[in-house]
Each structure stands twice: as structure tokens, then as C-alpha cells.
């Protein structure tokens, strides 16, 4: 502790223990400029490039592919743990953006075991971990997954979702201490430091759970309202056990659904933006205001 305030590393460590069930002892912990910086730059920071393969989920936040392409890596799109064979890095994302699917301990362990067998690193993006509704999201660093051995495993967290602080650009990379230290040495020379005032704000946000629980309750209410309206209008909701989105389908091409909802004044994301497997789904965010969610639900149900 310096000057009476915990460091950001201490604040993240305490949060991991308190909310994620992960013992931070022996883990590397460094700040990142939001989690997006790490999603986009991790292959580069690891020194990967031409001839290296990065595995990304079949339905995924597009920046995993952008970061791999930026480093010149080949991209393999697969959710099969054995896709790690011949790869350098495997991305996991639970709860998932866009589907809200949650990987359980067995699924996470299968990915970590396969990656270790094939000599690949696992990077698990867990930025929605505190928003479980019908499933309890688990960290890839949880003892049920890795025991007390974090080797080859890195996880990403951020304040953008937990604390609605996307504009502050604060994320953190946690895990295998030697991999985290290598990344720290490179980032430091690239000038990728988080400004001091943001670190102070981050310490306050990681240290407080009341604001997260309050926001969780707000999302849960909006989720119930939107889900009811969508189902009454003939939509099926798939996955969506966690996270800030409903993954919905009317069994038609996603752009037809996007157009119909746009005509009602409601903007949703086309599923094919996240991968071909999303061609018949749309992603509906819970992040609009209460008034706008009520308005949207009325129009969808009507
Ligand atoms: C899965 C996932 N990872 C990372 C990010 C990046 O968020 P940030 O850089 O604000 O932490 C997002 C943002 O939507 C996301 O959905």
C-alpha cells in the first residue's frame, strides 16, 4: 500500500479473491488500456506473427480476429478444444459476447488441458463475469479449472461492464506470472501505461461492490422486460444465461430481423457480424436506458 491507498494491483487482487473465487497469490497482474487493448494487441505483445495461428470462438467479439490479423497471424475459427493443435494462442470468452453462453468448469478445463498439451497459451476474456443470470460464470483461473497452476493461462477483466466505466479505459491482465511479466516489459517500452488518475479511479471501482450490485439489478429488470416482450412476439432466446445481451432469433436471416426492428425504432446487432454461425440471430443489448427499454418492449410486444 502506498500513501494509504491500495495500488491497482492490490485492488484487483482483492477483487479476484472476493468476487471471482481466485487466489491472486503468485499470479501476474498488470493494468491494460481497457480490455480491448489486450484483445487487440496480445498476439503482437507475445511476439506472434506470420506462421503463428490464433484460435477464436465461432461467434465472437470481432477484435480477437482484428488483433490476430494485425500481428500477421493465421486465424482458426473453432470452439473445439483440440483446435489448439499447432496454434500459439487460444481465445476463450465466457460469458460470451454476443451469445451470453457460459462455459462451465469442465469446458474450461478441456480447453486449458488441450492448449497445454499442444503448447498453446489460453487467453480468457471474462469481462462480463459479474453478470450471470441463469448460470454462474467461472474464471479460467478458478481452482476448479487450473488447481493452483496458472501456467499458460491469462485472463482479461475490465471496468467497462462491471462499473460502466468504458470511458476510463481500464482493464487488467492476470495469470501466468512469466507470461504477464514478458508482456509488461514490452508494454512499458511501448508507452502503454494507464494514467495515474485513471488508476486511482480504478482502485475505487474495484474496491466497491454496491454499485455493481445496483447496476446488476437494473440489468436484470431490463432483461426480464425485454425477454418477455420478445418471446410474446415469437422470438426464441438462445443462451443468454449471462452478460449484457439477449441472443434472439425468429428463424429468419438476421438482416430481416434488424430491418423490422429498425422500422420500430429499435437498433439491434446482426448476428453475422460475430461470425457466420450467427446468421439467423440478432444481439439485443440491455444497455439502453430504462425508458428506452420500456419503449422498445412495448413496440415489440405490440
Ligand atoms: C467480449 C469483450 N471483450 C472486450 C471488450 C472491450 O471492452 P473494454 O475495452 O471497454 O474493456 C468488449 C466490449 O464490448 C467485449 O464485449
SSE arrangement:
Blueprint: H1 8-20, E1 28-33, H2 34-45, E2 53-56, H3 63-70, E3 74-77, E4 89-93, H4 105-118, E5 121-125, H5 143-146, E6 153-158, H6 159-162, E7 170-175, H7 177-190, H8 196-206, H9 210-232, E8 236-238, E9 245-249, H10 254-263, E10 269-270, E11 282-285, H11 290-301
Parallel strand pairs: 2-3, 2-4, 4-5, 5-6
Antiparallel strand pairs: 1-7, 6-7, 8-9, 9-11, 10-11
Helix pairs in contact: 1-8, 2-3, 9-11
Bound molecules: pyridoxal-5'-phosphate.
The site of pyridoxal-5'-phosphate (PLP) has 13 residues, from helix 2.
What do these coordinates show?
This protein is an alpha/beta fold and 302 residues long. It contains eleven helices and eleven strands. It has two domains: 8-206, Aspartate Aminotransferase, domain 2 (3-Layer(aba) Sandwich); 210-301, Aspartate Aminotransferase, domain 1 (Alpha-Beta Complex). The protein starts with 7 loop residues before the first helix and ends with a helix. Residues 34-36, 39, 61, 93, 97, 125, 127, 158, 160, 166, 171 line the site of pyridoxal-5'-phosphate.
